[in-house]
Queue: 3 jobs
Job 1
Amino acid sequence: MGLLIVAIFVICAILFENFRQPLMIIFLIPISFIGLFLIFSLFDFYFDQGGYAAFVMLGGLAVNAGIFILNDFNNRGGNNQNRRILKSIAGKSIPILLTVLSTCFGLIPFLIEGQNEIFWFSLAIGTIGSLVFSMLGVFWILPVMMWKKVTQTHPHK
């Protein structure tokens, strides 16, 4: 897992040409892991190798959406940073949601056999729960981390 985080950081640092934005991307990983832990604990599912495989899979899937948004943000012109953030999120929300939904629907056949196929069931349920929860990080926490506080100056009388 550590190697995955280091690799993501290095690739994002090269892509974004700074060190702050890759940290935002890395921060999305624990948020998606919260969803993985919640789904297993709330519904009392058995956690095994499939759950561990879901960790690795989520390392790539959760950061993918953040990379889309930050890359679009960096490529947009304009002086108003907060407006660029909102436009980037609005512009990338449909592709991100379609990616998440298609992944979740693609994993549904592994849920049909239920807990008889423990590895595949754990992988599917962990990935689905995490992807749904990671949307909270991508569409709410990431913009908050990117948001720039606007200070208004009042002229002296």
Job 2
Amino acid sequence: MTMKHGKLIAGIIGLVLGIVIAFFLPIPHGLTHAAMVVLATLVTANIFWIFNVIPSFATGLLMLSTWVVLQAVPFEDSFAIFSTTTMWIIIGGLALGAAATKTGLITRIAYKIMSYFPANFKGQSLALFISGTIIAPMIPSAHPKAAMSTPIAKGISDALGYKPKSAASSGLFLAAMWGFFVTEGSFLSATAQNYAFKGLLPAKYQAVLSWGNWFLMMIPWTIIILVAGYFLLSFLFKPKDDTPVSREFINEQLKALGPMSKNEKITAISIIAAIIMWILESTINIPSAVTALVWVSILVAAKVLTAEDFKTRMSWSTIIFIGTVMALGNVMQTVGLTNWLRDVLKPVIGPIIGNIWVAVIVLPIIIYLIKFVVVSLISTGTLVTLALLPFVTQMGFSPALIVIIVTTSVNVWLLSYMNAPFLTGSAAVQDGMASRVSLAKSSIGYMAINIIGLLVCVPVWHLMGIA
């Protein structure tokens, strides 16, 4: 059976299930026909997303439109999310990231950091960890960071004389992905999916997840992820002879970039200013979305970004997809699905969400298992978050912590299909750096380290009054 036929069959099954749920199943006690329509479209949409029947954003738009056509939810409620601050900070953040990539600022930062470290496996893998962590909050999109960082790692690997898909080559690939991608859990602005998961929460819980709070909440996790991750990759992949060689490759790359351009300087100032204003959001009383849009406007006025850049450098399909996913949280509550799901799932989920120590161990394991079936990172996170939303009033900790646990736990790459950004990073180097075995080993290591990192965070969360 071809992939095309598989998608067609999945699509038919999804549509049939949706029709049966919406129009033929008896309406359970406590639900309305509107709730059944929303439940039906959610089932259909997830089948479409899992099997990529049509582009994800198109599935999302069809879901919202179906609510309106079947008169389950008014248009104003179905599409209300597109006028929220969360959507606009995603747009603004992606635009700032596009400027950083376009001007070469991100590449310059990466190579500059690498020039300070020994030109061997341990030195350059550490440099990739550090440069990636510094760059992570500047670009809220995983795929551009993956596509940019792995060719840098390949250049270093070639300069150090490592054979393709050798242990050392695999290690440098993973160091790039670890630094630039895995550390997205450390910063709210490091990926648009963080904003999407945050946007699923009721407004009063979203307020806990400001840029500064997120950063403070994740400091212990970040330290554990970086330190333990560095030693994990060194243990698994460091070559026997790790003698430093010439830094010629890195110096050549820096020389080719030339002096810092005016546009790079303007972009650097804009991003630094935006991050500072995000940290001080509650003090200066300027919403994060407004901050992002102001600095994007300045970049456009300074001609760093053009109208064409907004067409070609912004992933509008991703933005629309995230918006449609975020709409689910409010709509499920409006039609009564949230309360109904709480009653249905309480025997299973109740014991998990009653204690934060149990939650940070059990929830990641559940998410790891779900990833074998649901490929999309954001779809997995959305499913888990939506399943837990009915229990927000019964949690023994702030529901904001669910977003933290979800966003760190969806990033697994045990099997190649589980993680699209890893596929992007691999494609950027023609699948010529990391072996499948190395990916699996490092993913198992990350899965364990992630849980340890979350456990170490719990005392800090207690001190902050959220656990």
Job 3
Amino acid sequence: MNASNVARFGGLTLTAALLASVATPSLAGSFYLQEQSARGAGRAYSGEAADTGVSSMWWNPASIARSGREVYVGMHGLLLDSDVDNAGSTITYPGGTTVPVQGQAHNGDPIESGIVPNFAISTPIGDRFAVGLAVEAPYNFTTKYQPGSFARYDALTSELRSANVSVVGAMKVTDWLDLGVGVDAQYVKAKLTSALPNLSPLLADGNSSLEGDGWDYGWNVGAQAHTGRWNFGLSYRSKIEHELDGDVAITGLLGPIAAGNYTGSGTASFNTPWFASASVRYAVNDKLTLNAQVNRIGWSEFDAIRVRYATTGGDTYIQDYKDVTTGAVGFDYVANDRVTFRGGIGYDPTPTRDDERTARIPDADRWLFSGGVSVKATDSMTVDTGLTYIAFSDSDIASSHTSYAGTAAATTSTLRGTAEGYGIGASVGVRWAF
């Protein structure tokens, strides 16, 4: 294998690693985690862009314009039950010999449960201005398959950790209109291990691993209108163009492809989606408020992962995500001056396409059914809780990948499988006014 082909091989490995890192199903579409507010979790995030307060700052920077001094700390536990099963996966070796992929056909709970933290603080400056700071984890999950899994050429371990730091400014323009703007610094760290096929089913697999990270930047804007019983919100969060620096290790390749064993570095770039939200809250009376929110998510920005290798060459891994529209409705009911109950239903369609879904992204359409309660423990402290059941639709896995592409050793794995599961999210947060 010449230097150019080694470069291409390493580039494909880095690409696959980045794909794995952003491919864990969550309680929102694909690799996005919307668990940024315990109060919002209780109503399926149905009124966030129109609500006020520091815990709505992720959805609308204008939310802090008239909320006073406030601190929010939240924690969200995500329990996922998932199954991924083989449905006729094959591998085609050089010369055209096609055989079934051997190994573990049933994979129970490859998607690990986890915890998502968040923090936010805001303070007014004078009578009309406010500033805020928030730290969120919008992408944060781990997926693991056993070494003998049928999906091993697609994924073994896939880890993603992220931190988003937002600095926000807001202004009360009039008695009824608020505007806000923010900048985001987003850190992403990814890790992958996977198997690589040697040129005969009688030979042990090779292995690849990658770790990469990097900081990149985006922005967000929003507006809110408060007109008596009605509250309206509009917001937009930009895409972020990520470029991760990574270290690649490829081992265990034998015979003619042994020259592909490599340890080195590379970079990979991909985009996270933009978000546009429209929300309304209507106070039916002093106790009951109805909420609705629609989000248009620009997943088509995640069209490909583009790789540059440290020596020569590179590659592009097509993703072809589609833009989606999500929505939720819910309510807040003030039982008394200390207790508020919430509920909501949300729908999140998957941005993945049926004929391009891999074991790394066993994503599916989902319904969210939520309930929650807020208790004002003291005059300055409120405890928010939320519980969400997520019903995932069953989905098919169908994709193909060629290892050592462009060489005489090209080996194509054709993945066919099914995925099903459900999730439960438990959220708790504390808000302090000071």
